[in-house]
Each structure stands twice: as structure tokens, then as C-alpha cells.
């Protein structure tokens, strides 16, 4: 990061790469593609390590667990696949009735959360693959999902313009985040779990209190839809990415 030098260019996919992630150990990069495959790449050598095949449609979401021995992929084929990183073996989670939009492990690797265009969010046992719960309430597609860092709460973002917070243990909705004037494309907790950040097609990002559902601050300045947002590691800086061709840093 000191020089901005490009170390490797990973080549091998035959269509657009739409999602990617480092493992927590920073030894592998995973890429998911519209060519229906995911690939694992060695960071030190730049070589392809494993090719993950099994989906019958585009892969648009993926996530490593914190241990780094499993990866999940979500596809337009309505399924989620759990892969063994070392062998490439796959276990399929079946239950959603439409395209998968988002997937994530919780911190202790016990649970998986998935969001879908079928307007639901599903919670799965990461070991057995059994569906634990279906979280409902949204009136339109669920576009993004995430755990907080304790794995005790789940946040969902929807095309209905609202976000919700669920208790992972009781499976109950504990807060509704309402106020955006367009669909919410991205949602995340800060590292401390005390704030939620949302990005919307209404050209704004918002900060929320996850306990009360109250909007704390509206981040205005972009001139077009916001598709991405994130906190830094300390949680005191925010970055947003927009269709207006700019990224903004907020403090």
C-alpha cells in the first residue's frame, strides 16, 4: 500500500467478476464471477489454487469464515454453496425461491445468513447446513445482509427502502430503520456494533442507532445513487461509493 504497485493480475474467469474477498489470514483471495464459478488465488504467488464449480448461474456474493477453511457463495440459481477451501467440496443450502443477493458467516463460524430477491433473509447452521429460521417483514427484495461482530444481531437492507435489525437468538425484529427515499443497496455495522450505516439510491447514506432504529445522521453530498459504504477498522471513518463516479470520505 506504500507504493500503489500492482503485484498480480488474476486471470482465468470468462465473464465479469462481481464479488471478491480476502480471507482473514490474508493468504487467499476469492473471486466470484458471472461465469458461474468462484476461484481461490494464492496471494504470494498470484496462482489459482482452487476452482469452485457447481452453481448453474452467476455468482454474485461470497464470504470466507473467520477461520479461513470455508467459503460461501450465493448465486442467481437461488442456492447458497458452502465450500471446503482445501478440497473444493461443496454443500448446498436450498430454501430461497429467488436469486441470492448477499451471504455472510458470523464471527464464530456457527451461523450463515443469506439475503434473497424473494424478500426474505434466512439463517442457517453452518455445520449441518440446516435452515434455522426465515426472517420476514420486507415488502421487496433483500439486497444486503450482515451480522454484527458478536453475531448476536443481523441487519437487512431492502429494495423497499427500509432496513431491519433482528436478534439472531430469538429471530425477532428488534428495530426498523425507515427514512430513505429509495432502495437500500448496502448495510453494515460499525466494529463496535453501536451504529449501522446504510447506502441508498436516494443519493444519501445514513447512520442509525441499532437499538432504537433512530436515524442519527444523514450524509449528503453525492449527486447520484450510492451503491457501497463501509467503516474503517476503528469505526471513526466512513467511505461511500456512488454512481456519480466519486467516493467520499466522512469523519
TrEMBL record:
Its main location: cytoplasm. It is found in: Cytoplasm, Cytoskeleton, Flagellum axoneme; Cytoplasm, Cytoskeleton, Flagellum basal body. It comes from the Eukaryota. Gene3D superfamilies: YVTN repeat-like/Quinoprotein amine dehydrogenase (2.130.10.10). WD repeats lie at residues 10-51, 52-93, 93-134, 135-176, 177-218, 219-251. Transmembrane segments: none annotated. Keywords: Cell projection, Cilium, Cytoplasm, Cytoskeleton, Flagellum, Repeat, WD repeat. The keyword Repeat applies. PROSITE patterns: WD_REPEATS_1 (PS00678), WD_REPEATS_2 (PS50082), WD_REPEATS_REGION (PS50294). GO terms for biological process: axonemal dynein complex assembly. CDD domains: WD40. The keyword Magnesium does not apply. This is Dynein assembly factor with WD repeat domains 1. It comes from Phrynocephalus forsythii.
Amino acid at each position: 500500500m506504500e507504493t500503489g504497485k500492482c503485484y498480480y493480475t488474476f486471470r482465468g474467469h470468462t465473464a465479469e467478476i462481481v464479488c471478491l474477498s480476502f480471507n482473514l489470514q490474508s493468504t487467499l483471495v476469492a473471486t466470484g464471477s458471472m461465469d458461474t464459478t468462484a476461484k481461490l488465488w494464492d496471494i504470494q504467488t498470484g496462482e489459482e489454487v482452487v476452482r469452485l464449480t457447481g452453481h448453474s448461474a452467476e455468482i454474485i456474493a461470497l464470504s470466507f469464515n473467520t477461520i479461513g477453511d470455508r467459503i460461501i457463495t450465493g448465486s442467481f440459481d437461488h442456492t447458497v454453496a458452502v465450500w471446503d477451501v482445501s478440497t473444493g467440496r461443496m454443500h448446498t443450502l436450498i430454501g430461497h425461491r429467488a436469486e441470492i443477493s448477499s451471504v455472510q458467516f458470523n464471527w464464530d463460524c456457527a451461523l450463515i445468513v443469506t439475503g434473497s430477491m424473494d424478500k426474505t433473509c434466512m439463517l442457517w447452521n453452518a455445520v449441518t447446513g440446516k435452515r434455522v429460521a426465515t426472517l420476514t417483514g420486507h415488502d421487496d427484495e433483500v439486497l444486503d445482509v450482515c451480522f454484527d461482530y458478536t453475531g448476536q444481531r443481523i441487519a437487512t437492507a431492502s429494495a423497499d427502502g427500509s432496513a431491519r435489525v433482528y436478534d439472531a437468538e430469538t429471530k425477532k425484529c428488534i428495530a426498523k430503520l425507515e427514512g430513505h427515499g429509495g432502495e437500500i443497496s448496502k448495510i453494515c455495522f460499525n466494529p463496535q456494533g453501536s451504529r449501522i450505516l446504510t447506502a441508498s439510491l436516494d443519493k444519501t447514506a445514513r447512520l442509525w442507532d441499532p437499538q432504537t432504529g433512530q436515524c442519527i445522521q444523514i450524509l449528503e453530498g453525492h449527486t447520484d445513487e450510492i451503491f457501497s459504504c463501509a467503516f474503517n477498522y476503528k469505526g471513526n471513518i466512513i467511505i461511500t461509493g456512488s454512481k456519480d463516479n466519486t467516493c467520499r470520505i466522512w469523519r
